[in-house]
Write a structure and sequence with these properties.
The protein is an alpha+beta fold. The chain has a single domain, classed as Clam (outer membrane lipoprotein receptor (LolB), chain A). 15% of the residues lie in helices and 46% in strands. Strands 7-8-9-10-11-1-2-3-4-5-6-12 form a 12-stranded mixed sheet. The longest helix is centred in the N-terminal third of the chain and has 11 residues, at 9-19. The radius of gyration is 17 Å and the shape is globular.
């Protein structure tokens, strides 16, 4: 299931980065982004996700909550169709599903992940090192920005929909496999109190921790 979820946490990190993009407009879009993001220390939102799986020509849907706090980490907590989560605590990535007898734990090596999407968790100012703004347009009263990665990877392109209040409402990520991951956000809150406890792994004595 983790592979189905847009090839794991690396693409999830891309979604996080795009989630906190407040706006990309005009020639100075990246500069505006950097300035605005500099004032964002926490984010929380509800999300609805659709994943088109090219190999089986089917769409799977999920609902959940997203939390991010600068210097602490992030949490994608899925509530439907079942409970599961991706938790980054600043050092490790934890992945758990309600019907699994184990929890996956992965040590994040900053030397190996340097220059990739992982940098963007702590420093979104690196956005323009990784993406090119291909096109901007209007659709349904929202600005739509098309982004192309500068380097080859699992992601071939991305789109971001931004509302009039400069909040990201929708993300579409396309992969080389043909998979398309679409995430729509609601009840978005920036710089509201978020407990540090949300980014601390709480072990379940009935589950084995598998490290990789």
């Amino acid at each position: 299931m983790i592979k189905i979820m847009c090839n794991g946490w690396k693409v999830t990190l891309c979604a996080i980065m795009l989630m906190v993009v407040p706006a990309l407009c005009g020639a100075s879009g990246f500069d505006t982004l950097k300035k605005t993001y500099g004032g964002i220390n926490s984010l929380e939102a509800n999300f609805h996700q659709k994943i088109f799986i090219s190999s089986i020509k089917k769409v799977r849907e999920f609902d959940g909550e997203f939390f991010y706090k600068r210097g602490r980490g992030f949490l994608w907590r899925y509530t439907k169709p079942k409970i599961k989560y991706f938790l980054y605590d600043g050092q490790h990535m934890w992945q758990d599903e309600a019907d699994k007898s184990f929890v996956l734990k992965e040590k994040i090596n900053k030397e190996k992940t340097g220059g990739t999407f992982f940098d963007l968790v702590e420093d979104i100012t690196k956005l323009d090192d990784l993406f090119v703004l291909k096109q901007e347009s209007m659709s349904g009263g929202m600005e739509v920005f098309e982004l192309i990665p500068k380097k080859d990877g699992s992601i071939t392109s991305a789109k971001v929909w931004v509302d009039k209040e400069s909040l990201v409402r929708k993300i579409e990520i396309k992969e080389f496999t043909g998979n398309v991951n679409t995430i729509e956000f609601s009840a978005v809150k920036a710089n509201q109190p978020v407990s540090d406890g949300k980014f601390t792994f709480k072990p379940d004595k009935e589950k084995e921790i598998v490290e990789r």
